[in-house]
Amino acid sequence: MAPPRGARVRGFRTGSEVLEPTRRDRSNWIVAGVCALAAILAFANTLGHGFVYDDALLLGEPRVQSLAAWREILTQPFFRSAANDIDVWRPAASLSFALDFTISGWFGDGAPNPPVFHVGNVLWHAAASALAGLLALRLGLSRAAALAAGLLFAVHPIHTEAVANVYQRQELLAATFGFAFLLAHRAGRGGWAGVLFLLALASKESALGFLPFALALDALLPQGARRFRPRAWIGPALALAIYLALRMQALDGVQPRPMLLENPSGTVSALERIATAARVQTLYLGLLAWPFGLSSDYSFDQIPIVSSLRDPRVLLFVGIAAVALYAAWHWRATRPRVAIAVLAYVCLFAVTSNVLFPIGTIAAERLVYAPTLAAGLLVAEALVIAAERGLGRAAWVAATAIVLAAGLASVDRNRVWADDVTLFRDQVKTAPRSAKGHLNLGIALQRAGDNEGAARALETSLAIYPDNSHTWYSLGVALYNVRAEPKRVVQAFDNALRYGPMHHDARVKLILVLLQLHAKDDARRQIEELARLAPAHPQLPELRARLAAAK
Q1: Of 52, 243, 323, 470, which has the fewest CB atoms closer than 10 Å, so is most exposed?
Q2: Taking the model in full, what pTM does it have?
Q3: Containing structural domain, residue 509
Q4: Cis bond leading into 494, ω under 30°?
């Protein structure tokens, strides 16, 4: 016999109780604490890692290395890029990094201390995990089910990129403040909700998705007699207006544009972009359900452009979406958390899906960070259903096994992010068709002194994408260092200039090689071109002196 709605069955809450907020007591905070502890344990082995991958952006940007630059942080782009591919405004993230640089300065010789930054990332992830557990409680789940949702969020290995890569703290901050915004909004604290929503937006613009999600929560789980309370939206609305005004001023109205190497779907028709985005969603859903085969890179040409909506992977996503939307509509009254989970996924992916507009990357596991909440809520609701049918004990055993397996997978995956060479070797293994992955490995090997390995990796990258000036330049340096045939070295630097005429370092290297080959006329022409393009280049006097001294 099925239990009555609202009854407790082996630790799970069912039925109409979902419409009432869970009362606050000490045991609820135990749920948050356990989720936070699980997050720390799952990612503790990142604390000994160095700076890897995109962390170089932090080390090369003085403005985010000091709290004294807070005015510039609040009024200027996160990073200023000549290519305009990362011109975004994320002052909360910048201030967070500046704080870490300040704390790091208290230790050692003043050089950035990687453990300080990694501790920061792990703690922010712990905070987001605790809030995910509290949010699950706020949605009416029992403590056992909410704990399962929060633990899955805390230990899921798809979060490795967001936690292990210091630079990606933006995702952690946006989710932490976004979850806190939802809790404050549901508690009727409009002022705090506005402040927290502003901080989420200032961490990363994708936090905009929390606003429609909050609207969906109000519609599906009304508190009191009214579904919508206009006064509760004054704070978030004001926060959004302030954010948009400050962002527009900081970026001077300029929007970042995707590069083909990072997001080839940003260079094709809208139909092809949307079809490719649907194919990417099948990848994300697969990794959420079975997080093996993770990769730190999916750029050109690892995910080919999908040109037809009849592609099997697009049809698969359409089928999954249709089932999910039907379930959400069918159970909107009796099991609103199913609809909430579906809408959480849709809303929190809205900005980063490449469906509405192209973003900076075609796919990245860090983008799944906040949307993982949806998976946790679905698992928790599955536990509730199992409990209602008398399978609560077996369901809890299965959930425990899943959480433990996910946590161990995260610990194992974290090791890949220990250093650049380890990461990029894994990158080319998991994304063999990525030109960027082979380029990354080539540069890392070059820095490690393995120029022969670097040359092989760079040549593989160029076989996939030959139009990259920086790859040709790096190949030229590697070939020069291994004393390759001079003609190959000259050709590499020539191609670097062919695809990037303003690559002055490549032109300088080419001039030096031409002088060694006694090709004075060619060297003279390149010096004249450098003087025309960069008359104040610091190496021009030395190059002219070498030309004059050449025999």
Answers
A1: 323
A2: 0.92
A3: 434-549
A4: no
